[in-house]
Amino acid sequence: LFETLKIAYYWKSDESVYERECGNMPGFAVYYRYPNSQRVTYGQFIKVHWKWSQRITRLLIQCLESPEYMEIRNALILLTKISSVFQLRGRVGLTLKNEWRRLKAMRE
């Protein structure tokens, strides 16, 4: 997951990078069955990237709120592994930070 997020954030960093590295690749066709079909635009990629980030964040929060030790543990391990490439800003970052504080307080 770390490597996938790392390259996705790199592509997201600049439209020219995205166009150079992804613009004509068959894996970025809008319709996979038709490799010569229209390609995913930079704007579409940004929207998909945002959806991925939201889903990962929701799952992490769900795991951290779980009463199951293993789910909490796995979420914390995942967060430590992807923290350098998974950007948490705004409300989402605060939610995760508050959840971490709650867990820390429970432990003490």
How would you explain this protein's 3D organization?
It is built from 5 helices and no strands. With 108 residues, it is an all-alpha fold. The chain has one domain (2-107). α3 packs antiparallel against α4 and α3 packs parallel to α5 (90-107). The radius of gyration is 17 Å and the shape is elongated. It starts with a helix and ends with a helix. The mean pLDDT is 87.
The proportion of residues forming helix, as a percent range, comes to over 70%
Biggest sheet overview: none
Structural class: mainly alpha
Q: Give the rounded overall mean pLDDT.
A: 87
User: What is the β-strand count?
Assistant: 0
What's the total helix number?
5
Work out the strand percent.
under 5%
Q: Which residue ranges are poorly predicted, with pLDDT under 50 across at least 5 consecutive positions?
A: none
Radius of gyration: 17 Å
The domain tally reads 1
Order of helices and strands: HHHHH
Q: Between the first and last Cα atoms, what is the distance in angstroms?
A: 31 Å
Pfam families: Tho2
Domain THO complex subunitTHOC2 C-terminal: 1-104
GO molecular function, one term: mRNA binding
Protein name: THO complex subunitTHOC2 C-terminal domain-containing protein
